[in-house]
Amino acid sequence: MADDSSVTRLVEVLRRTAQALQPGDRLPATRALVAAHGVGPVTVNQAVAQLVAEGVIDTVPGRGTYVARRRAQRSADLAWQTVALGAEPIGDADLAHMLDVPGPDTLVLSAGYLSKDLQPLRALSAATARAARRPDAWERAAPAGLPELRGILAAQLRVEPADVVVVPGGQAGLATCLRALASPGSPVLVEVPTYLGAISAIRNAGLRPVPVPTDAGGVRVDLLARAFEVTGSRLLYMQPTYANPSGNVLAPQRRSEVLDGARAAGAFVIEDDYARHLGIDGPAPPALIHDDRDGHVVQVASLTKPTSASLRIGALVARGPAVQRLVTQRTVDDFFVSRVLQEATVELLTSPAWPRHLTALRSALRSRRDALVGAVRAHLPDAVIATVPAGGFHLWLQLPAGVDDVALAERARREDLVISAGRPYFVTEPPAPHIRLSFGATGEADLVAGVRRLARLLPG
Known about the structure:
Elements: H1 4-20, H2 30-37, H3 41-54, E1 57-60, E2 64-67, H4 80-85, H5 93-98, E3 107-108, H6 121-132, H7 147-157, E4 164-167, H8 170-181, E5 187-192, H9 196-204, E6 208-215, E7 218-219, H10 221-231, E8 235-238, H11 252-265, E9 268-273, E10 297-302, E11 314-317, H12 321-334, H13 339-349, H14 353-379, E12 384-385, E13 394-398, H15 405-414, E14 417-418, E15 420-421, E16 434-438, H16 444-457
Parallel strand pairs: 3-14, 5-6, 5-8, 8-9, 9-10
Antiparallel strand pairs: 1-2, 4-11, 6-7, 10-11, 12-13, 13-16, 15-16
Helix pairs in contact: 1-3, 6-13, 8-9, 8-12, 10-11, 14-16
């Protein structure tokens, strides 16, 4: 049997030899290579076969091995795809920018995930190792998720296990809801501003986002009722808790009015509860689904935000026939969520490390938020902070009139500073320029340095 390392070494020798010769020149015979390099004929044959496959050399039976003649390469003609693909989808470019991986020297004040020092990496590694040793870890899972994980999530979310559907992250769960609960072309009411990923998902599902204004108390319920009436919409998407990007929390007195409006319209409410574990000044307010007895609210929960971007585990919570509709859509999408990842999540959520992590995370996010707010007030005095967020990752700033927030974000990127322009978070004309600064992925010193760099880029 040929030794792999011997084959690799001989491949490199023959490659260099071929590069020094001209196309069509003959290479040494097998017997000469065996003698020169102290290898067996099998090793020579394997090395030659690899270089033939790469197009470096050619073999002619009965005559020998030669340096391959360079063949004219025809440029690929991919223009046909322009016709086949049709018009470019709307709303994907801004989402793609959100997921760009910046360079090592870039100050990132835009990321929606935790930095490594805040992730429970040791607990995640231990949970994954234990999960991989479970007897059925590599078997398939039920479309709705592992019963054990559904039970744990139900206990945390204070719902029934039968109402929980496990999904591969909050974004996938949101996409499932949109496709399962609305028909293509239907209107979907959305808060403005709202989560950029939701706007892209709505448009990608062939739905029409309809803006409903917000203020510091969340969605304007007077205008929400009017929007239901005018559009006939049967679906509302909202973030009642630590909304992205504004940080707003739905005012307590508005909760019942939102549900009354949905009930009157016969509509579903998608409650994007991404920040359930990200309370800073205290526990997050109760989920809106707890005020709903008639199955109007479908909750989207995520474990990705308080852990790691690659722990793609979330949950949908619904009641009534909607549960089976969601399970059916999930089955069509990808059958089921990776079982070993579900098993690892069970191990993580049942370990003593989980509550300790959440406690430490709350303290760290509070320090970062306060550092960012202090830096903005010191170095960007003309920027308006409407809400100091009591949870989540994001600080929403209104800029002085006349500032182009998109151009500002582009200039900042050229200066190795990544911020989020406010305009893409609106599905209608923005009332003023805004930017979103995020503190989950950046340490305190870099947050302050980033704000100082940003201040130099603003007029005046």
